[in-house]
Amino acid sequence: MRTDQLENLEERQQAYPVLPIRNSVLFPNLILPLSVGRSASLAALDTALAAEDKTIVVVAQREPSTDDVGVDDLYEVGTLATIKKIERQDDVMHLLVFGSERVELGEVESTEPYLRVRVRRLPAPKDKSTEVDALHREMMDVTRKISELLASQTPVELIDVVMQTKDMMQQLYLLASLLSIEVSKSQTLLAAPTRQFALEKMHEFLSYELKVLELRHKIASQASTEIGREQREYVLRQQMKAIQDELGGKSAEEAETEELRRRLDEAELPEKVFKEAEKELRRLERMSPNAADYQVTRTYLDLMLELPWHKTTEDNLELSRARTILDEDHFNLKEVKLRIVEHLAVMKLNPEAKAPILCFVGPPGVGKTSLGQSIARALGREFERLALGGLHDEAELRGHRRTYIGAMPGRILQAIRRAGVKNPLLMLDEIDKLGRDYRGDPAAALMEILDPAQNHAFHDNYLDLPFDLSKVFFITTANTLESIPRPLLDRMEVLRLAGYSDEEKCEIAVRYLIPRQVEGAGLTAEQIVFPRLTLQHLISHYTREAGVRELERTLGRIARKIATEVVEGRTAPAAIAVEELGDMLGPERFLPEKARQQLQPGVAAGLAWTEAGGDVLYIEALLLPNGKDLKLTGQLGDVMRESAEAAQSYIRSRSRELRIDQKRLDKSGVHIHVPAGATPKDGPSAGVAMVVALASLLTDRAARSDTAMTGEITLSGLVFPVGGIKEKMLAAHRAGVRRVVLPKANEKDLRELPEHVREEMEFVFASHIDEVLNAAIPELELGKK
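RESULT FIELD:
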């Protein structure tokens, strides 16, 4: 008995040569093809082939990349195999091995020239239980689903092959082999000690494979749908192309690129621009019409071909014609008209002269924008207007880079493309109302655009090529210069357009506004008449502005009312009388600016400049018994407040000469008010009027009611010049003030006044406050003995 047991033990522990394999596992009762090329493996095969049973142990490597394999590099469980077929090719041996049973590696007998190990045979698991049956059925269900997903890839149903095998463990081995489960998982099945363990692991592996197959099936289905749609479109396009070829036509894309090629060949582009356009066109020809960049490139080429790189209009340099056109379109404005005629004369003598950059500054409605149109007509140039009011994005002027979605060229290039020539007249309206925020500073971009030394190579971000703007006639407009950055203002020649006098407004209405509004209402000149007296009343009682916009709107209202009456049957001409204005326009909107007939002590008439023109401001001063300091009201700005403080200090310093009661002055405060209180006011030009108001108050002597004044003061008594003289004088004339005290340095500015205004008014020029006080309050007799 003991001898048999020893013999069985020796049989079970028999030594065999070992054949390591890299990426697969050999299962019992299955055949595996192998290719062997390592010297140790070939030696092991030679030894096995020399034996009668041709048996060898096939074991999977833990790490496939290892060449010099030891027992520690192998899994513990392998398969005892028989070599069935062999074929030698050079140094490689191809063979088929048949797995007979599982074995466990034991003691190593030798490692040279090959690995030889004693093994212990492992019997197949035979355990039975309800869990085993349940797991087996569940495994078969998963296998059936996998078989359905693989039906299109394998000619034989996987489930049928498996079902033909009766042994449960053989089914597991067969599935692992057919599904090419990775080595580590296959090795777990081979080494499984029980059926239950093997089924649990196999169910886990198959569930994972099922999820992978389902996902692959879903992806393949979506891809096939997409490919089917693209194939359908391709077939349709090919059919369309064939039809067009039969008809002798071309595809839309080919026709489009050929048209672009023709335009490119005909366009006289600069060399650098032509090279860039040629490159973009070749790129477009290679591009599919469905590509995202197709339309971007197409639009970019259109811009390059439409820009007038060399096209210009010929300037009409006939001076007499230019004067006639400017006089036809605008009344007065002699300085601006003279400047345009001077430019035409320079252009006639020097055609290469740079175009000027003018800035029209003036109140609203004086004709700044329409004057630009007249200049373009006089020069014979194309006219384009760009409204800059509220513009806060620098890219609006320079353009956006083409990398952005919806990118466009800047407004400057768009205007030049619309004009169709490279020397249009571009009017940049409301340049003083540019915005500025985190998106950039448009004024900074304008510094390049409006600089003749730089704009010959203007760089738009979208075009990304230099474009010459030096031939463009730029005209900018503004209501005030305060908000324009100094470096930008330095690049422009400022021409001021002052407000109109009432007489000028009457003339403008007769020449331009009434004919335009009568024609707009569908009337004839015989059907409506505006007597001059009616126009004067309309201007003084229904409009208060430096320009004529509100006057034109008011005339339009009257014209529409007469048009209504004509439609309803009126046949007699309508001569608009002053008495009818109330019924047509409602109550008078403004009281005429009339000088106060009598001024009480403490009141002086000052003159102010506003964006809407000039205005007469009556400065009122009042003593506050037992009060202190100086109180100022009327929404005065910081500069005007400082003028009031300087006036008070000067009057206090001259109290003895002015014969002011010092005790009364010390015990009283002063309140200065400047109507209208709802209108903000600022500036230094009310200084002299404040001195006169305080002197009148403290000396108890009234200032002359027919005298108004303007000028800046200093503590030493000097009178400095101020701006807006024309507007201020017109406001005084409008209010009936016929005597004005002005700084001596402003005498030259009276040349801008209409001649009839200068003739009707008296001007007193002063360089010291004493001269102002003597002119406004003669009773003081300062400096006289």
